[in-house]
Automatic annotation (TrEMBL):
Protein name: FAD-binding oxidoreductase
PANTHER family: GLYCINE OXIDASE, SARCOSINE DEHYDROGENASE-RELATED
Gene3D superfamilies associated with the record: D-Amino Acid Oxidase, subunit A, domain 2, FAD/NAD(P)-binding domain
Keywords: Oxidoreductase
SUPFAM superfamilies with a match to the protein in the record: FAD-linked reductases, C-terminal domain, FAD/NAD(P)-binding domain
GO molecular function terms attached to this record: oxidoreductase activity
Residue span, FAD dependent oxidoreductase domain: 6-402
The enzyme's E.C. designation: 1.-.-.-
Organism: Bradyrhizobium symbiodeficiens
C-alpha cells in the first residue's frame, strides 16, 4: 500500500479534517466528503466542551453502573437519561455498555488503551493550530476538577486508574481553591489540577481552520452526503453519495454518529450509538472560573471560549431522530449559576445560547480505528464518544499510517473494529 492514493475521507469533523492533513503529509490525494460546513453548528465538534483532556481515560461505564439503569429510565433530566421510546432499539448497545464496565480489570484495560491515544494530545493540537495559523485557539494551561469533599475524590475509581496509567496532578485544599477560584461556590472544598491538559478556545473555529489548512494543502471538499461504499472484490472503487459516485482507491469513514450505515454497507454492522449532548453558553458573563473546570457533582465541564462561558456535559440515549429535550440544557444553565453565585440571575435570554448534538459512541468507550473486514482500502475512525476533539490529533496520524501501510505509532488491537464482529 505504499505510494500515493486517492483517499476519500467521509466526514469533515475534527477526526476527518486532521486525517486529511496527515494523509496529505504522507503524499496522498484527498477528497473530503461532507454535506455541511466544517466546524458548523451541525457538527459535534462545534458543541464540544473544549477540553483537551489527555487524562480522560475512563469509559462512561464503571462497575456497578447497572444498578443505576432504573434511575436513568425514570429521570429524563439526570446526567445519563434513556428515553423509554428508544429503549428497545438501544438495548443491545446498553447490554454491551454495561458489560464493558462490569469489572475494574476491564475498565483498567480501557484506561491504558485511551492513555495511548490521548497522551500528549494538547501538544499535538498546539502544533496543528500553529500550522493552521490559529495558535491562539489552543492553550496548554491545565484543567481543574472540583469536588464537594476529599472523600468524593478518594472514592472515585477513575482517579485510582488515572494514577496507574501515569497521569499526574496537583491537589488543592479549600483555601488553595479559593485563592485560585474566588468566584466558585464554597461548597467545593477539594480540587485537583491536571497540568498536562489544555483547552480549545473555539472548537468550531478550530475545526474550520484545520479544514481550510487541508484545502490549502490540496484537499478537495465535496459537499455531499455519503450513503455507502462500492467494492469490486476486495478493492474499493468509489464512495456512493446522494449526488453520485466519487471514484477513489482508499476511504476513511470518519462520519461520527452517522458512520454506522456506511460500515454496514460493506458488511460491518458495528454497535455505534449516539450519546446526545447539550451545552449552554453565556455571552459576556460577569463572573466565572479563571481556569477550565469540571464539577464532580454536576458531571459538567465549564470552559471559557472566545464566544462566552460554556457549560457542557450529560448524556441522553434517544437516537439520531428524536427532537432535543431543551430542559436538559436548562439544567446545565442552573448548575452553572449554582457553581458561580456571582453570576447575575437576570442575564437577558439573548445572551444565553444553547446547543444540541450527537457524540458517536462505542459501548466500551473506545473508538474504532482500523481496517474494514471487506477491504484494507477502507479505514474506520469514529466512535470517540467523549474524547472526540482531544483524541482527533493522534487518530489522524494513525489513519495516515494505516493508509500508507506504515506501523501505527501505538498498539491498535484495543481499537480494532473486529472486537464487535
Amino acid at each position: 500500500m505504499s505510494g500515493s492514493r486517492h483517499v476519500a475521507i467521509i466526514g469533515a469533523g475534527a477526526v476527518g479534517v486532521i486525517s486529511a492533513i496527515e494523509a496529505l503529509r504522507e503524499g496522498h490525494r484527498v477528497t473530503l466528503i461532507d454535506p455541511g460546513e466544517p466546524g458548523g453548528e451541525q457538527a459535534a465538534s462545534y458543541g464540544n466542551a473544549g477540553w483537551l483532556s489527555s487524562h480522560s481515560v475512563i469509559p462512561p461505564a464503571e462497575p456497578g453502573i447497572w444498578k443505576k439503569v432504573p434511575g436513568y429510565l425514570m429521570d429524563p433530566l439526570g446526567p445519563l437519561a434513556i428515553r423509554w421510546s428508544y429503549l428497545p432499539k438501544a438495548l443491545p448497545w446498553l447490554v454491551k455498555y454495561l458489560y464493558s464496565g462490569w469489572t475494574e480489570a476491564r475498565v483498567e484495560r480501557t484506561a491504558f488503551a485511551l492513555r495511548d491515544l490521548l497522551k500528549d494530545a494538547p501538544l499535538l493540537h498546539r502544533t496543528l493550530a500553529e500550522e493552521a495559523g490559529v495558535p491562539e485557539l489552543v492553550e496548554r494551561n491545565g484543567v481543574m476538577h472540583v469536588f464537594p469533599s476529599r472523600g468524593n475524590f478518594d472514592n472515585d475509581l477513575g482517579w485510582r486508574l488515572r494514577k496507574k496509567v501515569g497521569v499526574e496532578w496537583l491537589e488543592l485544599n479549600a483555601d488553595e481553591m479559593r485563592q485560585r477560584e474566588p468566584d466558585l461556590h464554597p461548597r467545593y472544598t477539594f480540587g485537583v489540577v491536571v497540568e498536562e491538559a489544555g483547552r480549545c478556545r473555539d472548537p468550531g473555529a478550530y475545526v474550520a481552520a484545520l479544514a481550510n489548512h487541508a484545502i490549502a494543502g490540496g484537499a478537495k471538499h465535496v459537499r455531499a452526503k455519503a450513503t455507502g461504499l462500492r467494492l469490486n472484490g476486495d478493492k474499493l472503487v468509489a464512495v456512493v453519495t446522494e449526488t453520485g459516485e466519487i471514484a477513489c482507491d482508499a476511504a476513511v469513514v470518519a462520519a461520527g454518529a452517522h458512520s454506522k450505515r456506511l460500515t454496514a454497507s460493506v458488511g460491518d454492522p458495528l454497535p455505534l450509538e449516539t450519546e446526545r449532548g447539550y451545552h449552554v453558553m453565556i455571552e459576556h458573563p460577569e463572573s466565572g472560573p479563571r481556569s477550565s473546570m469540571m464539577a464532580s457533582d454536576a458531571k459538567m465541564v465549564v470552559n471559557w471560549t472566545n464566544k462566552g462561558l460554556r457549560a457542557a456535559g450529560t448524556v441522553e440515549i434517544a437516537g439520531l431522530e428524536a427532537a432535543p429535550n431543551w430542559r436538559r440544557a436548562e439544567i446545565l444553565r442552573d448548575h452553572l449559576f449554582s457553581m458561580f453565585p456571582k453570576l447575575p440571575k437576570d442575564i437577558p435570554a439573548s445572551r444565553i445560547k444553547t446547543w444540541f448534538g450527537h457524540r458517536p459512541s462505542m459501548p466500551d468507550g473506545i473508538p474504532c480505528i482500523g481496517h474494514a473486514r471487506a477491504s484494507r482500502d477502507i479505514v474506520y475512525a469514529f466512535g470517540h464518544g467523549h474524547v472526540g476533539l482531544v483524541g482527533s490529533a493522534r487518530t489522524g496520524r494513525l489513519v495516515a499510517q494505516l493508509l500508507s501501510g506504515k506501523p501505527p505509532e501505538i498498539p491498535l488491537a484495543p481499537f480494532a473494529p473486529e472486537r464487535f464482529l
